[in-house]
Amino acid sequence: MSAPTLPANAGSSPDSAGHYGRYGGRFVPEALVAALDELDLAYRTALTDESFQAEFGTMLREYANIPSLLYRAERLSAEVGARILLKREDLNHTGAHKIRNVLGQALLTKRMGKPRVIAETGAGQHGVATATAAAYLDLECVVYMGEVDTQRQALNVARMRMLGATVVPVTSGSRTLKDAMNEAMRDWVANVDRTHYIIGSTAGPHPFPAMVRDFVRGIGVEARQQSLDLDGKLPDAVAACVGGGSNALGIFHAFVPDDDVRLYGFEAGGDGVETGRHAASITGGSSGVLHGARTYVLQDEDGQTRESHSISAGLDYPGVGPEHAWLHDIGRARYAPVTDAEAMSAFQLLCRTEGIIPAIESAHALAGTLKIIPALTAELGRKPTILVNLSGRGDKDVHTAGEYFGILDGEQA
Ligand SMILES: Cc1ncc(COP(=O)(O)O)c(C=O)c1O
């Protein structure tokens, strides 16, 4: 594999204004600039503040069951002709990688002296994680969720309410994640003095993409060390699904300087990129501005954001974090779409071979991995070892998957 040319900031940070090459930055109303500056300062201070790092580390370890396991999926490996290692983020408290970011931002909220947090959520995982952190740290919590997602992720709506959060169904636009994010931004503008907006992915205006990445990058730091402990060497490739991009950057970031480790991000191809019904912003989009940052966006000729589609609520987003846009353009990570059907087939495979029900988002990572095995085997001349981020568990998706496979009885269907 040829070594890509990386700018000096590779593997660390964007420039001081939040740019990754031509992506990122801050495109926000005047009213939010002071709040973003305050957040940037709090986050930078926290990065080097030993007491913050110690408290964050204790919360991850003692509350969230982190570090997560690295698991050798042997039956799956035998079936697919590659050695598959799964980073078990599904075993974290609340069932996904999202808890890492949320605990970090909730702790920052406390440090900034704000009593209220708001969040947007698609699959509900980020909403549940935020409601959990708010209960744990005694913060008021409001979660915005597209009405369509409140229906396909009803279980997570109930979980958030049990945890004491207010869930607001958003009825504008496509009634999915991007609309929830718009509503949350409106709330933030109106209540910025006493509210922190916990964005759930490596998206949004600076400093969110860098800050969220830094809170989740432990995934890759752990997995890198776990791989070395297990095999005495690094995996040939690392794979993850890409919605806004947090679980992918979380696992990629520590490997970016390792030129021999290939990085693969799998986007939601929905019904197929050629049908227009998909959420593959890098493969099927173009450069534009969404939710405060320049990045790849699904948009029409007038720059209006197009509706996205994916069977997976957490990947159903018409943009992607700016660091991914940059990693794509410089060729350090490769991105490809995975259709709903391919993801569901991988979902079933993991259930049957390993007794693990994955989140449908994570099933995209596995499906994409299956597609790259033949080429990677040919390139290496041997069986590849591929580290896959199992970003979450499938409890929230049981109804969607049950319907998809036609295995629900009578009135449940
Ligand atoms: C389990 C899981 N994986 C992946 C994602 C996609 O988000 P991101 O791309 O930020 O990791 C989500 C979003 O809700 C999720 O719940």
- How many strand elements? 14
Q: Which stretches of 5+ consecutive residues score pLDDT under 50?
A: 1-11
Q: What does the average pLDDT come to? A: 94
User: Strand order within the widest sheet?
Assistant: 3-4-14-9-10-13
Q: Name the bound molecules.
A: pyridoxal-5'-phosphate
Name the structural class.
Answer: alpha/beta
Distance between the termini: 48 Å
What share of residues are in beta strands? 15-25%
What summary fits the major beta sheet?
6 strands, mixed
* Order of helical and strand elements: EEHHEHEHEHEHHEHEHHEHEHEEHEHHEH
Report the total helices: 16
Radius of gyration: 20 Å
Overall morphology: globular
Helix content: 40-55%
Keywords: Amino-acid biosynthesis, Aromatic amino acid biosynthesis, Lyase, Pyridoxal phosphate, Tryptophan biosynthesis
Pathway: Amino-acid biosynthesis; L-tryptophan biosynthesis; L-tryptophan from chorismate: step 5/5
GO molecular function, one term: tryptophan synthase activity
Domain Tryptophan synthase beta chain-like PALP: 67-392
What can you tell me about this protein's structure?
With 413 residues, the protein is of the alpha/beta class. Helices cover 44% and strands 17% of the residues. It has 16 helices and 14 strands. The protein has helices spanning 30-47, 50-62, 74-80, 98-111, 125-137, 147-152, 154-162, 177-191, 208-216, 218-231, 246-252, 281-284, 322-329, 340-354, 360-380, 398-405, and strands at 19-20, 23-24, 70-72, 83-88, 116-121, 140-146, 166-170, 195-197, 237-242, 262-270, 286-290, 293-297, 333-339, 385-390. Helix 11 links the parallel strand 9 and strand 10. Helix 9 (208-216) packs across helix 11 and helix 10 (218-231) packs across helix 11 (246-252). The model is unreliable at 1-11 (pLDDT under 50). Pyridoxal-5'-phosphate is lined by residues 96, 122-123, 125-126, 201, 241-248, 314-315, 359, 361-362, 391-392.
